[in-house]
Amino acid sequence: MPGDMNRSNAEQLTSWRILEQAREERRRVARHKVNIPARIDVGGAILDCRVVDISKLGAKLRVEAAHLLPDSFLLLLTPSGHPARRCRIRWRSDAEVGVEFLPEHALEHQRTKPERLAQAALDCFALLAMMMSQGTLTPSAPRPAPSPARADSPDRR
Q1: Would you give the end-to-end CA distance of the chain in angstroms?
Q2: In degrees rounded to 5, what are phi and psi of residue 137?
Q3: Domain boundaries, the chain
Q4: Which of 6, 15, 77, 121 has the fewest C-beta atoms under 10 angstroms from its C-beta?
């Protein structure tokens, strides 16, 4: 900006902070800082990425060669690839992209309930296995089953 040449660094920094704060307040939905490994399916190739913030409407992804990504792709949020979100890039820099989540595909709603339940179970097991391999979850010994109450027991109700 031409007027910035005459302003001190402190004034410029203050202006920048005010602009950044206003930009954050314009967001429709709060974003949550995270650090989640994910993958991008560009239709034939899978690329590793990292989700650095996320909301119900979109996310910021850190990815190498962000400028080579297509304008839309499928974001795989778990090792099994489910859930996955169809995304459209809203902005990009050398190493990051901001994406908007697109509405769910009609095909997802056509899956049967048993298929959705089976996929959810697989996702849970994959998450548990990943947590155990990272040491964030350790298996515990199974608890013994409670003994059945006897018919002549005073505790039986």
Answers
A1: 81
A2: -145, 130
A3: 28-133
A4: 6
C-alpha–C-alpha distance, residues 84 and 77, integer Å:
6
- Distance between CA 5 and CA 11 in Å, rounded? 11
Q: Which of 77, 75, 81, 92 is nearest to 40 (CA)?
A: 75
CATH number for the domain whose boundaries are 28-133: 2.40.10.220
Residue 34's closest CA among 12, 62, 10, 64?
A: 62
Q: What is the pLDDT of residues 82-106, one digit of tens each?
A: 788 999 999 999 899 999 999 875 3
16: Cα within 13 Å, side-chain hemisphere = 9
pLDDT tens for 105-119 read 534 554 566 766 666
Q: Is the pTM of this model over 0.70?
A: no
pLDDT at 29 over 80: no
Q: Two tokens at 66?
A: 């962000």
Q: Hey, what are 49's tokens?
A: 């990425």
Helix residue ranges, H only, the chain:
9-26, 106-110, 113-133
Distance CA 102, CA 15 (A): 34
